[in-house]
Amino acid sequence: MKNMLFDLSAKPELLPLAHVVRPLQSVAAQQNAAFFLMGAAARDVMLTHVHGIDTKRATQDVDFGVTVRDWATFEALRNALIAGGEFKAVSNDAAHKLRHVSSKYPLDIVPFGGVERADRTLAWPPDGHTVFDCFGMREAMLSSHQVHLPGDVPLNVASIPALALLKITAWQDRKYTFPGRDAPDLLLYLRHYLDCGHLDRATTDHPDLFAADNPDYEENSARLLCRDLLALIDDTAMRRLLQILLPEIDDQGPLLLAQQSGLPLHRARRIIQAFATELLRKP
After folding, report:
1. Counting CB atoms within 10 angstroms of each CB, which of 111, 198, 237, 264 has the fewest?
2. Are residues 103 and 199 in the same domain?
């Protein structure tokens, strides 16, 4: 899957996002840090604004992954954002949470890269009691697409396969504490991937998806997304995904992912199974 450029500069509804991104760009450049948009805002950019798919899940939350050398770089970046006057701290106990002053948008700036531990988690200083899973963030950064926002503001946005990867991680972490928060978004990505400009490519490059007499469109969409996702991850990451998803397609398993998806249970299970089956087919 190629990194692509999408020109959304003529969409005035994205101007508030541009106002958030511009000062972050300036500060990140000073700290030699790179960042990308993830989370619900990235979902809305990629599905609604790029591909015209109504998510019915509008949000004002703006989440960024920021690659930094160390914790000192992250602290310097955060302090510079606040000192610039366009952002303010929400809580001293949540260093990654800010608020954009003019738009009132809540902002999460999640570091990764040099602050990650060997297991791809980070432990927030000073006590390390709060742990965040960075799995998928490096892959999302490398595969991100560039979007041009109003005011000639460029922004790296996570690709849809990378958003699905991040969403699977988030669901695994929050499936009991925030049931129903992540599964609907994951199923959106799986069901609509063919609608995101991939149908012609699928028929040309993946004819086996349509070999059945009555191919299921949404299941094939999930299968193609998985194939594109596999190009982003290594075998270790693939095994981790299987550990999460295989119990969710087992008839005797918990089926929480399908239950929390907002879809009829049998329908959600078939789409999830189509995705997981592609993982199992990888040599």
Report:
1. 264
2. no
35/6 Cα distance (integer angstroms): 17
Which residue do the tokens 């550990």 mark? 243
- Domain C-terminal end among 135, 158, 181: 158
DSSP-assigned letter for residue 144: P
Write the single-letter amino acid at 78.
Answer: R
Task: Tell me the residue range of the domain where 97 lies.
Answer: 5-158
pTM for the model: 0.95
How many angstroms separate the CA atoms of 138 and 146, rounded? 16
Cis peptide bond prior to 126, omega within 30° of 0: yes
What was the pLDDT predicted at 58? 72
Q: Say what the pLDDT of residue 56 is.
A: 82
CA distances from 220 to 43, 174, 210, 276 (A): 20, 27, 8, 12
- Asked whether 103 and 22 are in contact (CB, 8 A), the reply is no
Q: What pLDDT digit, counting tens, does each position of 38-77 carry? A: 999 999 999 999 999 998 877 778 999 999 999 999 999 9
Q: Where are the beta strands (DSSP E) in 85-225?
A: 87-89, 97-100, 106-113, 121-123, 131-133, 145-149, 153-157
Give me the pLDDT at residue 3, please.
82
Could you say which of 158, 181, 208 is where a domain stops?
A: 158
Q: Is residue 205 part of a domain?
A: yes
Mean pLDDT by 10 residues, the chain (283 residues): 88 95 95 95 96 85 96 96 95 88 92 95 90 95 97 96 97 94 97 96 95 92 97 94 94 93 96 96 78
Q: Which pair of structure tokens corresponds to residue 255?
A: 């089926």
Residue 104, Ramachandran bin (φ over 0: left; ψ between -120 and 50: alpha; else beta): left
Answer yes or no: is 163 within a domain: no
Strands 5-7 and 145-149, by their bridges, are parallel
127 located within any domain: yes
Report the first-to-last Cα separation within the chain, whole angstroms. Answer: 19
Amino acid at site 216: D
